[in-house]
# Entry
Amino acid sequence: MKKLLQLLLFIPLVSFGQTFELTNGQSMCMIGKGEGQDATINPYSNKEFSYALIENIGTVEFNIRVESIDKEIREFIIKPYDKVVIKLYRAEILYLDSLTLDKAEAKIMYTINENELPPPPPPVE
# Structure
């Protein structure tokens, strides 16, 4: 019983990544539009900000797009097998955009713990 209780207390501390495929030039809203429209659940969406750790687990690059409530857009390209961190503010919308007709594969995880993060990506020119 004690081990079961310890396991149940530990589960909320672990953040599991979610995996996605983008094909045929597809764009996918990851978080920010609301229930039923988001592909992922950010357990920290009620905080002032959180971090999205995005890993390209495929063989083609894809675009990461963050749109603010004021329609300002930040974009980043993630190359195959790279990991990037995006700081998301509460009202921002996160999209993953396929750049080709080839299949792009991504893994995404949310956190508020800065110790879990690699360095941020360079901006797209």
